[in-house]
Structure formats: C-alpha cells, structure tokens
Specification:
The protein has helices spanning 2-80, 85-139, 163-182, 198-207, 229-232; strands at 142-144, 149-156, 194-195, 213-220, 224-225, 239-247. By secondary structure, the protein is α+β, with helices and mostly antiparallel strands. The chain folds into two domains: 2-139, Helix Hairpins (Orthogonal Bundle), CATH 1.10.287; 143-247. The chain is elongated.
Length: 250
C-alpha cells in the first residue's frame, strides 16, 4: 500500500509539472500571438502609407511634367512675341519656382517612401520571425523560451581575482543546460554554444568585485527548438543570452 501511495505521489508530481509547463507555454503562445497581430497591423498601416505616398509622388511627377511643358510653351511664345518677354519671363520664373517646389516635395516623398519601405521590410522580418515562433510554440517543440533562466546563483566575491572564475562557472552551467535542452537524447555537449557580448561579461565581473552579495542570472534572448542543429553545429550564431548581476538586498 505504501508503494502505491508513493507511486501515486510521483504521478501527481509529474502531472503537476506537465500542467505548469503547459501553462507557461500557453502564456508564451498568447503573448507571441498578440505580438504577431500587432506586427500585422503595423505592416498593413505602413503598406497603406506607402501607397498614399506613391500616389502623391505620381501626382507630383505629373504636375512637374505639365509645368515643364508649360515652361517650354512659354519660352516658345517669348521668342515669337518679343513685346511679351517681360510678362512671360515672370511667368517662367514662377513656373521654375513651382517646379523647384514640386521637385523638393517629390524628393522628400521619395525619402519618406524609402524609409517606409525599410520599415515595411523590417516589419516583414519581424512578422516572419513571430510566425515561426508562433508555429514552434503551437507544435510544443520549444526547448528554450525567450527570457528563460539558464543559470543563476547568489555569489560573494571576497577576492577580486576570482570574479572571472565565478562568472565563467555560471556561463559553463548555462551552456550545459542549453545543450541538454536542445539535444536531450545526446551525451553532454562540451563545445561552447552560448553567445554573449564581451562587454556584458566584463561589466558583471567588474561589478561583483566589491565583496557584496549579488544574484547573477543568465537569460535566453530568444526561443530555440529541440534539435536545432544550426545552433549546435555552429553554422550560425549560437544561443543568444544576456548576463546581469543584481545586488541581493536580503
């Protein structure tokens, strides 16, 4: 009877763990879906603005062509009717100023259109990335979630020369955990798959040398799926992480 109770407790623990994991995944899924919808809305707004600017640019080009045609006709009339030279010269100058104004407006619109196109391209990239993230979350094969803690620890460095060793140990622990999450069916991965900026690491090392207690955390910057070979093989950047040290106030 005791064995049955113990087995039942283990089953309940496993069930609770699965329920907690499902809740976290569903929360991440909902946030990603909301971001995806917002990106789609921004993308559509940018497309609408681009269409409007393109129409304005086309209208200005047409006006410029008409003004240039008017100018040519006025020049012809000036040559033919010398008595009207003064009046025609004034009109030509007005047309020239109008053309210059339109051309300046056209140039500004072209700059705006280029900026909007770049914004649309960026939104499209974000849209594609969020779509992939959404699909990964729906399929339930995400091994590492964005902002997931890969390693953390409270440390006090009394000897400043050991600060780098302390940080390196946490980075190694985070590297091992990330590898295990990505390839749970393989032996321990020894190669470095984490990617973190040297500036962040040096900042943490310098920060913890004052002998105070700090909580160091290493968080994932993105979502990574199980068996993501491009990360483990080194073909592209590995698991992007951030490292930070927060004073322990307790």
């Amino acid at each position: 009877m005791r064995k049955v109770r113990e087995r039942l407790e283990r089953i309940n623990q496993s069930l609770q763990t699965a329920i907690d994991k499902q809740a976290r995944t569903e929360g991440q899924l909902n946030r990603t879906q909301s971001q995806l919808q917002q990106t789609q809305s921004n993308y559509q707004q940018a497309q609408t603005q681009l269409g409007s600017i393109s129409q304005q640019a086309a209208s200005l080009k047409s006006e410029i062509q008409q003004l240039q045609s008017d100018r040519q006709e006025l020049v012809r009339q000036r040559d033919a009717v010398r008595v009207q030279i003064a009046q025609r010269d004034q009109e030509i100058a007005q047309r020239d100023r109008a053309i210059a104004t339109r051309e300046a407006q056209l140039q500004q619109l072209e700059v705006q259109r280029t900026a909007l196109q770049q914004e649309i391209d960026l939104l499209d990239q974000q849209f594609q990335a969020l779509q992939q993230e959404y699909q990964d979350l729906r399929q339930g094969n995400v091994a590492i979630l964005r902002n997931q803690t890969l390693a953390a620890g409270a440390v006090r460095v009394n000897d400043p020369t050991t600060a780098q060793q302390v940080v390196n140990q946490l980075l190694q622990a985070a590297n091992s955990r990330a590898a295990q999450r990505l390839r749970p069916d393989m032996p321990e991965v020894t190669e470095q798959i984490l990617q973190v900026t040297k500036a962040e690491v040096e900042q943490v090392i310098n920060q913890i040398q004052d002998g105070k207690v700090y909580v160091i955390r290493i968080l994932s910057d993105g979502n990574y799926v199980v068996g993501e070979s491009r990360v483990l093989s080194g073909q592209e950047d590995g698991v992007q992480v951030t490292i930070s040290a927060i004073p322990n106030e307790l």
